[in-house]
Amino acid sequence: MREIEELVRPNIKALKPYSSARDEFKGTATVFLDANENSYGSPLSTAYNRYPDPLQIDLKEKLSRIKGVPAGNMFIGNGSDEAIDILFRIFCEPRVDNVIICPPTYGMYEVSANINDVEVRKINLTANYQLNGEAILQAADSNTKMLFICSPNNPTGNAINAAEVEALVQHFDGIVVIDEAYINYSKQPSFINLLTKYPNVVILQTFSKAWGMAALRVGMAFAGDIIIKYFNKVKPPYNVNLSSQQQAIEALDNIEWVNTQIKETVSERQRLVDALRELTIVNKIYPSDANFILVKVVDAKAIYDYLAQRGIVVRDRSRVELCEGCLRITIGTPEENDIVIQTLAKY
Ligand code: PMP
Known about the structure:
Layout: H1 4-7, H2 10-14, H3 21-24, H4 57-67, E1 74-77, H5 80-91, E2 98-101, H6 108-115, E3 119-122, H7 133-139, E4 144-150, H8 162-171, E5 175-179, E6 201-206, E7 219-223, H9 225-234, H10 242-251, H11 255-277, E8 282-285, E9 292-297, H12 300-309, E10 315-316, E11 326-330, H13 334-345
Parallel strand pairs: 2-3, 2-4, 4-5, 5-6
Antiparallel strand pairs: 1-7, 6-7, 8-9, 9-11, 10-11
The structure holds 4'-deoxy-4'-aminopyridoxal-5'-phosphate.
4'-deoxy-4'-aminopyridoxal-5'-phosphate binds near residues 80, 150 and 206.
């Protein structure tokens, strides 16, 4: 197995990162004339005239107490999409290296690879949406740097078999990125505990789903010291704005609210499944550990259009390989779910 440092692009290893004013001065001061900010304030009530903490220390320390991960093993991004992009920039040499993804899965892994001009090797999930571990290991070569596993997976909704994930972490000679955007809705525990055993694991989570803060763009990556060091080297200096940092810190005081909503979402998911199962237009509903369900219907395009004409927008995944004929429906409020059920019953 290669060391993490051997996987890093040579230019990133040699990179002298940007050093901001906020990075350089560590003492206490009352007069800040080091960052060309506006010393007169801003037209807003909050002191937005100052650049925010580049390393989001207060947020990381509070998260650390909740997640059981040291603050030094966290990267906070402008959404977890930023973490995905930075991983490509740390590890993948354009036109030389490659990554493995397991479709059908979250689309940004491939888009980020394409933006960074990195080859994508696709090893489809099996018919029951689990990993094909043997084929994944066979597809890897000395230029394979990362494997993306999404659990619970988008758009299929299922959790990925934990023993198979750990076996891949052990045998895949590269970085294994486990995207847990939907983990709060899952019966299966997080893979966070793998971090202390394996240096090649990166866990992605987000404030966009269960925490209900998609608009604020706050994503998390948890990883070993070396990987986090490179995240900090490559990231834009002030990648998470002050307002988002403050709101995320405030949100963390409201775990009870979040847990209540998770329970409600999970119970509504079951109610929606039970109701849709009764409809003749529904052929199959895949088991979900997420806040959406994948539903195979008789005529996905027509049903998508029918719903859209009535102001209900779902995601048409019917042209995605292994999702033929499927719509992906996010779990709504009880009222929204009633509207979906009643509208589909009249189709
Ligand atoms: N991972 C998965 C699996 C997702 O479905 C999404 C959002 N749809 C993301 C990551 C991106 O999340 P964020 O809002 O944190 O960028």
